[in-house]
Hints:
This protein is mainly beta. Helix content is 7%, strand content 32%.
Amino acid sequence: MAVAPLMPCEPRPALAPAGGAAKLPVPRPSQGHQMNTVTETVLPPGEAWHGALGAGQVLRVTAESVVDFVAYSRADPAEYFDAARTRIYNLNIYPANGQRLFSKQNNPMAKIVRDDFAGAGRHDLQSPHSCGAAMLKALASLNVTADDLPDPLGLFRNMTIRQSDGAIAPAPLAPPAPMSVEIEAEIDLLVALVNCPDPKTSPPGRDAVLEILAP
């Protein structure tokens, strides 16, 4: 599947160890060799993009504000990223480096292999889409509707959960410079992302850069 231009069952996995994002290291992608850039896309605020990510390839997202991410299996688009199962299998409400992203069918789809935001803030698995219309436009080829659009992984959307009563609140953090997150596909994926700077959950919007890397 060709990368789209910019737009105006495996066995049930074992539980991953729990851990907080703030104290985790920032390793490079898991491959033991140099990665090469296959494609690079500049994504302005409010814009969406979708493209193919092959198993073993790495998606690098470099941004200074929130970028929403969803993923679908290319073999079966009815299998898609699920925020709830990702929280459960990682025993962590904050996705962190080294943790996997799981599907609705309980299968691992991808793995976070680099997280520059660790120690500065946390990514979000609690919130719905803030730029749902743009995401739906990016996913038009899959005939996804608002009713079956999965909740996203909100990259760089720092949120806090109050321990006393469980209240969730945005806690925007402005990175001192563009930061990168790298996600390695474990199966062939169709991924979609929106550069979605919400003033309540992120600093002022700036361009994001999306790169697909391969050995």
